Please model this.
Amino acid sequence: MKTVLITGCSSGYGLKTARRFHAEGWNVIATMRAPRRDVLPSADRLRVLALDVTDPDSIAAAIEESGPIDALVNNAGVGVVGAFEVTPMSHVRNVFDTNTFGVMAMTQAVIPQFRARRSGAIVNVTSSVTLASMPLAAAYTASKTAISGFTGSLAHELAAFNVRVKLVEPGYAPTTRFAHNTTLRVEDLIPEAYAEFAAPIFAQFAAPSLVTTEADVAEAVWRAANDLSAQLHFPAGADAVALARAS
Model:
């Protein structure tokens, strides 16, 4: 029976992905900064562990407690929407700490066991902003685009050890807590000078023509983790699929 470790499982994509792998018969190690038994109650083949991907000691403890795993899903992430001009650099660093360096640190922590066994899968969840740039998300886009390049390079590097590395690129999901995973409010990052520019963009966010669901992302992660081909990109959601085809 295979085991997957998934980061960022308190809500959204991570929670749905944990439930999907569990339903498929895998052992699931669902991690989150502050474990919540209300979202993932105790069950056979399911463990909930504390993990802060920005803390090296937390990573080491979680990897040790998890034991051997067959797949890592790097899903934990934070978002920021607003004009880059007024986005505090301290927050930009926080975004990169989780979305970029956190993914890299988790990946580096599991490579030795995958390489030694000559098997394993690493699935990095990025965003459709890596497929087509969108305004008012410069810092977030940069953090996710870095992982896109990182994953493509690492896929070549680890193929020699039969370790598969994949990208899942979710589209826009209005039902996720993306906007809540930050201490900054969107309205605080839209100064008056940007109000006219931002208005139609937020109107489009409020009534998108195509959206991504949590189930779309869980399905894409499941396919990516089990894919034995050389396919790298797995767009998730109708909007992401459309962007991927157009790019």
About this structure: The chain has a mean pLDDT of 92.
